[in-house]
Design a protein that fits this description.
The complex is a heterodimer of chains A (about 140) and B (about 375).
Chain A (H helix, E strand, L loop, with lengths): L15 H8 L4 E5 L5 E2 L14 E5 L3 E10 L10 E8 L4 E4 L16 E8 L5 E7 L3
Antiparallel strand pairs in A: 1-2, 1-3, 4-5, 4-7, 5-6, 7-8
Chain B lengths: L5 E8 L11 H16 L8 E4 L4 H8 L5 E3 L7 H15 L5 E8 L16 H5 L8 H4 L4 H8 L3 H15 L13 H6 L2 E4 L1 E2 L8 E10 H4 L7 E10 L14 H14 L8 E4 L6 H8 L5 H9 L16 H4 L7 H13 L11 E8 L4 E8 L3
Helix pairs in contact in B: 1-2, 7-12, 11-12
């Protein structure tokens, strides 16, 4: 469901693959060919060792809930209270997101709970990776 | 950097603090600067080094009529002024300038002459945080708290006690914005802002400013105020994105800056008489106590809840009332420095009797940056 006032990301040359991936229903990360570290956010070199030899790959979409707040103040495109979460991806990197298909309460949002990626299409340009409680 | 080679010889805040709609942001800078210059018994023409944040050095230097030979526009958030002190001390020691003025001011409440802070949609923050409903610092800064609480076994009541204890200090301070006593129940029943933090655990939003003047310890003897020496300093940055911190169990920037300052000062934690830890939100003093090495993180909540940082406690912390109860114009680090200087001069409203060493620790952004200054009144 599109929420027209929600802030839209604008890709740069270094991040285009991530947003293209989200539009295609893939969570794309990068991994260093030299030291094998997976990292986020996108950049064309490894932040661990500095190598420019890096590859883009499709992440599993599996994650756990690392931390969050339940925001009670109004923000365009959101109906408070809503959780702003940081999830830890199975591959290691963490990213900010929202948790959907889940009550936005401390009781339902249990730290370390298993999550899986889902994609929300905002418009023709932007699809956001969000997370929901894992089905399995 | 060598110990005690540079001293604070002038320190002042704006004449008013709180709601100051009749002054623009640059005038608040000037008001603080002129007060500090008067405090040091100087004239504007004596200033040859200048540092400020948010506003550019050229903006404020020109407004004041200063011609500096050394400038620092380091702007890493609320601890920028700790970094300015560190850089200024190095510059004075290196002979780049003799007398440095550092200013902060923000029309944080009244928004008079204040440039809005914008996040571009194509910045990393704009792409990977903004779309998820973040807005004010209150929506961002508390994001690590639940993880910190789970890892270290911190309770909601302990986190509430941070605000309670700081209000006890504020009650002793005529210039504090909020002075009425509060209880843990008051905190836990106050309006929810961003779970787990409620409004009494979030900083105030006010107008104001402050300024410091530094010179060499040799010259400091000839100034009217009791010199406050720079004993140790540290600084670091981590990430502009809170989601990308190495861990939420601690702050890497804190863990770099704090111990660096202690090492440089050549002191242990037992030597510390007075402590300031920038408290934009109630969890920051916990991170600070742990990351600066005062105790394991597991003990920080209990330490505060047991009263060790309150008036009469063994480690007086945030003795002006802090960002939670004293004032917070947006970049509180300057006010923490001002309180450390007052304590070292022996003139603080809630003076810690006989205090000789004060540690002043700042944060910038959402754990994005950090600066630590250790002061002493004995050379």
């Amino acid at each position: 469901m599109a929420e027209p006032a929600r802030a839209r990301p604008k890709a740069t040359p270094e991040t285009q693959h991530f947003w293209d991936g989200a539009r295609a229903g893939e969570l794309r990360l990068q991994r260093c060919d030299a030291c094998a570290k997976a990292y986020f956010p996108p950049r064309p070199f490894c932040p661990a060792c500095g190598s420019r030899k890096v590859s883009i790959f499709k992440a599993s979409g599996k994650a756990t809930l690392y931390s969050y707040v339940i925001h009670h103040r109004p923000v365009p495109g959101f109906t408070p209270p809503y959780a702003i979460a940081v999830v830890e991806l199975e591959e290691g990197p963490r990213m900010m997101t929202n948790i959907v298909d889940c009550p936005q309460t401390p009781e339902a949002l249990d730290l370390d709970m298993k999550l899986e990626v889902t994609f929300e299409k905002l418009d023709e340009v932007t699809t956001l990776p969000l997370f929901r409680p894992a089905k399995d | 950097m060598r110990r005690n080679q540079v001293a604070v010889v002038g320190a002042a805040e704006t004449t008013e603090l709180g709601v100051i709609p009749h002054m623009s942001q640059i005038q608040l800078h000037a008001d603080a600067a002129l007060n500090a210059i008067a405090d040091a018994g100087l004239k504007l023409s004596n200033i040859d080094g200048f540092a400020t944040a948010v506003e550019t050095p050229q903006q404020i230097a020109h407004y004041l009529g200063i011609t500096p030979t050394w400038v620092d526009g380091t702007s890493v958030g609320g601890c920028s002024f700790m970094l300015h002190v560190r850089h200024a001390a190095a510059a004075i020691e290196a002979g780049l300038c003799k007398t440095v003025l550092i200013t902060h001011a923000e029309s944080g409440k009244s928004n008079v002459g204040r440039t809005p802070r914008m996040i571009g949609a194509d910045s990393l923050n704009g792409q990977f945080e903004l779309p998820y409903g973040v807005s004010t610092p209150a929506s961002l800064f508390p994001i690590p708290v639940l993880r910190y609480m789970k890892t270290h076994g911190i309770t909601h009541e302990q986190l509430a006690m941070v605000a309670v204890v700081q209000r006890e200090w504020a009650a002793k301070n005529p210039r504090a914005t909020m002075k009425a006593p509060i209880t843990v129940e008051d905190v836990l029943n106050s309006r929810m802002i961003a779970y787990p933090l409620r409004i009494l655990q979030c900083c105030l939003v006010t107008d104001g400013g402050g300024a410091l003047i530094l010179t060499s310890a040799e010259r400091a003897k000839d100034f009217p105020q009791k010199p406050v020496y720079i004993l140790g300093t540290g600084e670091s940055v981590e990430t502009p994105m809170v989601s990308q911190m190495q861990t939420f169990d601690s702050s890497r920037a804190f863990k770099v800056a704090g111990p660096l300052a202690f090492k440089e000062a050549g002191i242990t934690h037992k030597d510390v008489d007075h402590l300031m830890i920038y408290d934009a939100f109630a969890h920051l003093p916990l991170y600070g106590l742990g990351d600066l090495g005062f105790m394991p993180h597991e003990e920080t909540g209990k330490f505060i809840a047991d009263g060790h940082t309150r008036p009469g406690g063994k480690l007086p912390l945030n003795t002006n009332g802090g960002g939670l109860s004293y004032m917070h114009s947006g970049m509180y680090g300057m006010y923490a420095l001002q309180e450390s200087v007052r304590q070292m001069r022996g003139i603080a409203p809630a003076q810690v009797q006989g205090a000789k060493i004060s540690v002043c620790h700042g944060v910038g952004g959402m754990f994005a940056a950090s600066g630590t200054i250790i002061f002493t009144n004995e050379r």
